[in-house]
Specification:
The complex is a heterodimer. By secondary structure, chain A is mainly beta. Chain A has strands at residues 4-6, 10-13, 19-21, 23-25, 31-37, 44-49, 56-57, 64-70, 73-78, 87-94, 103-104, 108-112. In chain A, the strands form three sheets. In chain A, strands 2, 5, 6, 7, 10, 11 and 12 form a seven-stranded mixed beta sheet that branches. In chain A, strand 8 (64-70) and strand 9 (73-78) form a beta hairpin. The chains are: A mainly beta, B mainly beta.
């Protein structure tokens, strides 16, 4: 069964902390994505990667960075967590190419106090 | 700014009812339209990827249609069951923007 695994289901952090959200996929997918989901809004793209060591900004990259050192792993980093980063974070992967369907992790609900 | 609208925002139906929701997207530069189902505490799961105007796709009791010229897609659920309760997301892939743009979703609750 194909899988995208996110390291934590729930996370509580303090303002100013550095936060790492990890995502691993076992499908040998080229593309990986980080989204956040807030009530009343669609999934918003934070960062994505089409290849190892490659990253591109999505629509809301401010306050975030990413790392993709290996094909199967895509990490989202909150350099200094703020309360407005409290959200549900979803990782996804897809095969290379345009418009391919996404395979999602089950999400990390992050609360920043 | 590319925008994807879904309606209604939420829907409550009785078991056995048939229902449908709408996804509206820009009609220019169309490449693909995705539908996902997101059940509580689970991962969003792809239902359909549609690329051609007039496409109709079916999976069990769920089907979808696509009109790229006027920029809308309908998702239909025939004979809703409690296990259909979920948030249904649509996402538009623009050939020019080269990323998926998601709507806010339709939250469906099916009551026994």
């Amino acid at each position: 069964d194909v899988k995208v695994t996110q390291s934590s289901r729930y996370l509580v952090k303090r303002t100013g902390e550095k936060v790492f959200l990890e995502c691993v996929q076992d499908m040998d997918h080229e593309n990986m994505f980080w989204y956040r989901q807030d009530p009343g809004l669609g999934l918003r793209l934070i960062y994505f990667s089409y290849d190892v060591k490659m990253k591109e900004k999505g629509d809301i990259p401010e306050g975030y960075s990413v790392s993709r050192e290996k094909k199967e792993r895509f990490s989202l980093i909150l350099e200094s967590a703020s309360t407005n980063q409290t959200s549900m974070y979803l990782c996804a992967s897809s095969r290379g190419g345009k418009g391919e369907k996404l395979f999602f992790g089950s999400g990390t609900q992050l609360s920043v106090l | 700014i590319l925008n994807v609208e879904q309606s209604p925002q939420s829907l409550h139906v009785q078991e056995g009812d048939s229902t449908n929701f709408t996804c509206s997207f820009p009609s220019s530069n169309f490449y693909a339209l995705h539908w996902y189902r997101w059940e509580t505490a689970k991962s969003p799961e792809a239902l359909f990827v549609m690329t051609l105007n007039g496409d109709e796709k079916k999976k069990g009791r769920i089907s979808a249609t696509l009109n790229t010229k006027e920029g809308y897609s309908y998702l239909y659920i025939k004979g809703s069951q409690p296990e259909d309760s979920a948030t249904y997301l649509c996402a538009f892939y623009s050939g020019g923007y080269n990323k998926l743009i998601f709507g806010a979703g339709t939250r469906l609750a099916v009551h026994p």
